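BUG: 3D viewer hangs when loading the predicted structure for this chain

Environment: internal workstation, default settings.
Expected: structure renders.
Actual: progress bar stalls at 90%.

Input used:
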Amino acid sequence: MTARTALEADGVFLVARVKPHTAFRAPIESGLAKMLTIGLGKQKGAQSLHRTPIHKFDRLIPEVAQIVMKRLKVIGGLAVIENNQNQIGHIETVPGDQILVREPELLKLAREWMPRILMDEFDLLIVDEIGKDISGDGMDPTSRAATVCRRCTEVPEFKKL
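C-alpha cells produced before the viewer hung:
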C-alpha cells in the first residue's frame, strides 16, 4: 500500500512487530507507529524521515504518527510481539485511536521477552553466530553495548567482543 492508496482507502489496518529498535531507546520504537510514519511513506517517506538524526526519533515517530492519523482513517493495528525464541508470543488488536497509548506497554512486554545475556559484566564475548537475519546490523546491538547504541540501557559491560 502506498501513501496515496492509504489516503484514498476507506480505512487502514496495520500489522507490525512491536520490538525495541536497534539504534535508539524511547517509549515508542519499532511497531505500529513506526509503520505509520515510515512504512506507509514507502521509499520516499522513509528516506525523508531517515534524514533526521536517529537521536530525534523518540519524538519524531509519535509526532509524525499523530499527523498521519489525522489524515488517514486508521481503523487499528495488529501488534505482534515475539518471545525469546523468536516465536509469536503475543498478538493484540489495537484500536486506531489507542496505538500511541498502547504501544509503549507492548514495547515493555517485548523488551521483557527479548533474549539477553544473563551476566552483567565479563571480559570477553565470543559470538558463535551472526547475520542479517538476527539484526540489520548483523548482531543485536543491544548485546554490543554502547559501541552502537550509546543511549541504550540494561546492556552488559565487556572489554572485548
